[in-house]
């Protein structure tokens, strides 16, 4: 990444820090912000230095995994 380009996920990293500080570092209060960071990193992980510690496989929103495979619905 060029030094003149801004890190595309840095605003999300800043939102995480602000949310965690506001909520006394209770991660469960910032799940939507953490998921937004993960989504950014899924797209920009090769260019963003802020993504170095993000687990791209971990979903932060509990309902996100259910949406992909709704319970009780089968394909016919």
UniProtKB/TrEMBL annotation:
<protein>
    <submittedName>
        <fullName>Cx9C motif-containing protein 4</fullName>
    </submittedName>
</protein>
<keyword id="KW-0496">Mitochondrion</keyword>
<dbReference type="Pfam" id="PF08991">
    <property type="entry name" value="CMC4"/>
</dbReference>
<dbReference type="InterPro" id="IPR027179">
    <property type="entry name" value="CMC4"/>
</dbReference>
<dbReference type="GO" id="GO:0005758">
    <property type="term" value="C:mitochondrial intermembrane space"/>
</dbReference>
<feature type="disulfide bond">
    <location>
        <begin position="41"/>
        <end position="51"/>
    </location>
</feature>
<feature type="disulfide bond">
    <location>
        <begin position="9"/>
        <end position="40"/>
    </location>
</feature>
<keyword id="KW-1015">Disulfide bond</keyword>
<dbReference type="InterPro" id="IPR009069">
    <property type="entry name" value="Cys_alpha_HP_mot_SF"/>
</dbReference>
<comment type="similarity">
    <text>Belongs to the CMC4 family.</text>
</comment>
<feature type="disulfide bond">
    <location>
        <begin position="19"/>
        <end position="30"/>
    </location>
</feature>
């Amino acid at each position: 990444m060029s030094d003149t380009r801004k890190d595309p996920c840095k605003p999300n990293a800043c939102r995480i820090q602000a949310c965690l500080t506001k909520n006394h570092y209770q991660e469960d209060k910032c799940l939507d912000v953490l998921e937004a960071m993960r989504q950014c990193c899924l797209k920009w992980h090769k260019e963003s230095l802020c993504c170095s510690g993000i687990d791209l496989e971990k979903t932060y929103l509990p309902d996100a995994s259910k949406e992909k495979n709704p319970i009780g619905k089968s394909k016919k």
